[in-house]
Amino acid sequence: MRETKYWTWFIIAGFMIFVLGGLHMMTVHLNGVVSLFNPFGSDAVAWKNVAYRSKSLCFTLTYIALLGAVLYHGFYGLRTILMELGLQKTTQRKLTASLWVIGIILFVIGTLAAAAAKIAATTL
Length: 124
Hints:
Elements: H1 2-29, H2 47-54, H3 57-83, H4 89-122
Helix pairs in contact: 1-3, 2-4, 3-4
């Protein structure tokens, strides 16, 4: 039952990656189609456009949600692959704990980076 719950979150994270990653791709890489989020010219990665998007709390929360979904989906997938090797129970527990710790550290770093970008953009 426990693995079913984690698998369900894995599927939900994959769906979130699809939706939020698609939004990111449209915003940054399809600027000709969606120029709504880039009011300062056609270069989506120009600092004025990045700062404009970074001022929005919605974009900041979207990037943080995308980061969380990508980390969970990737690390759970890696864990699942490594569990197929037939590891002992203690090794499985240590591996799971290690992946959680690494994932949380990366999530905190990414969240701080998104918050720093928002702060830098709002102080301009």
